[in-house]
TrEMBL record:
Keyword set, alphabetical order: ATP-binding, Kinase, Membrane, Nucleotide-binding, Transferase, Transmembrane, Transmembrane helix
GO molecular function: ATP binding; kinase activity; thiamine diphosphokinase activity
Gene3D superfamilies: Thiamin pyrophosphokinase, catalytic domain
BP terms from Gene Ontology: thiamine diphosphate biosynthetic process
Transmembrane segments: 334-353
Protein source organism: Alkaliphilus oremlandii (strain OhILAs)
One matching Pfam family: SteA-like_C
InterPro entries attached to this UniProt entry: Put_SteA-like, SteA-like_C, TPK_catalytic_sf
Identification of the protein by name: Thiamin pyrophosphokinase catalytic region
Domain called SteA-like C-terminal: residue spans: 320-370
Length: 373
């Protein structure tokens, strides 16, 4: 195998995505590559992916490497050599067999993750899922006790300008299947016109479908400058001690925002904002709702999400579930039967209507005249 291309590298995959161009070799440091990261890399049409981390650690069956492999993009795990010390952005490197070469020198040894190796690693990970599940449940319960302020309402929610009372609110996270979810509810968005909240990159997901977010909520590490400039209001997710690193970026762009300091994920606080401001219904797109989702985000439990979903409970609808329901298209036979049913009354009217009968007689005479009959 021989691939020669420009190297682009970043230890944070979501930051690298914004700099990648088609044909580049993406160098990452990403344990257990998740579906969202994999799909983003595939969309960039990179020529190869070199991972300085473990693409499949064996903790749980992550599907990212499978997605990459099925897209015919070669993926390698580094076994020897520190590419982040040896390379800089834009270096032209060559992959020959399982080696990285620059200036005719081997600087790194790797292992190619073939389809067979990926399947074997995932099979082993499947056996470990019960152990990981036990740890996950324990962490969830421990942190649920620490973060119970989320459900008891002991939060200082900033004064939001956007009105949500008695309105529908759409919370969009750029998570798994977000495109399918948004496609499913496009008519709902256009007809109901809910308040649109993008959670970090979820703001760009809304722009992708032609909608401008009313609010962007998050730590501001994966949303584009363009989206931040277009949205109507910005809420920066801060730490419990009051610090909010994401606010620096907002200020550098010459924009203003509010800080919401709270435990949990940014999607959690987006739902809390909607609930606190009197939303009639909260529709979630691309959000994290199961153990694999959270493990892929590097979280050891889902205490905050568990508590938040308990709190907003009756007002929350998961668009992912809706999209699953609507994936079964209407069968052709039902459409044919519907057309036949519609034609029956039309046919009856034609049979008993004198004007229509006369029209057919005139058409018959006209046709006979044209044909000379």
């Amino acid at each position: 195998m021989g691939i020669k291309a420009k190297a682009r590298l970043d230890k944070k995959t979501k930051q690298l995505i914004n700099r990648l161009e088609a044909g580049d070799i993406a160098i990452i440091d990403h344990d257990d590559i998740d579906e969202v990261a994999a799909n983003s890399l595939v969309e960039k049409k990179v020529s190869a992916i070199i991972n300085c981390g473990k693409s499949i650690s064996g903790r749980y069956p992550n599907l990212g490497p499978t997605i990459i492999s099925e897209s015919n993009i070669p993926i390698f795990d580094v076994t020897q050599g520190n590419l982040f010390e040896l390379l800089k952005e834009g270096d032209i490197i060559e992959i020959v067999d399982d080696n990285v070469i620059i200036n005719h020198q081997i600087i790194c040894e790797m292992v190619f993750l073939s389809k067979e190796k990926i399947e074997t690693a995932l099979a082993l990970a499947e056996k470990n899922i019960e152990v990981e599940l036990e740890k996950f449940i324990e962490n969830t319960l421990v942190y649920a006790n620490k973060e119970k302020g989320l459900i008891l309402g002991n939060l200082n929610i900033p004064p939001i300008k956007t009105k949500m009372e008695k309105k529908h609110v759409l919370v969009v996270v750029r998570g798994q299947n977000y495109r399918e979810d948004l496609m499913t509810i496009l008519s709902y968005i256009k007809e109901v016109r809910p308040v649109l909240i993008g959670v970090d990159g979820g703001g760009d997901a809304l722009l992708e479908f032609g909608f401008i977010p009313d609010i962007i909520v998050g730590d501001m590490d994966s949303v584009s400058d363009d989206c931040l400039k277009k949205c109507k209001e910005i809420i920066v997710h801060g730490y419990l001690d009051g610090t909010a690193p994401g606010m620096g970026r907002i200020e550098n762009l010459g924009l203003s925002g509010l800080v919401f300091s709270a435990a949990g994920t940014s999607e959690d606080i987006a739902m809390l904002i909607a609930y606190d401001k009197g939303a009639d219904l909260i529709v979630a797109v691309g959000t994290h709702s199961n153990m694999i989702d959270f493990l892929e985000k590097g979280r050891k439990g889902m205490s905050s999400t568990f508590l938040v979903r308990m709190k907003v409970g009756s007002k929350l609808v998961d668009a992912r579930g809706v999209s699953k329901l609507y994936k079964n298209n209407i069968k052709p036979k039902y459409i044919i039967l519907l057309v036949i049913a519609a034609l029956i009354p039309i046919t009856m009217v034609m049979l008993i209507s004198k004007p229509i009968q006369n029209l057919f007689k005139l058409l018959n005479i006209r046709i006979r005249m044209i044909l000379g009959l």
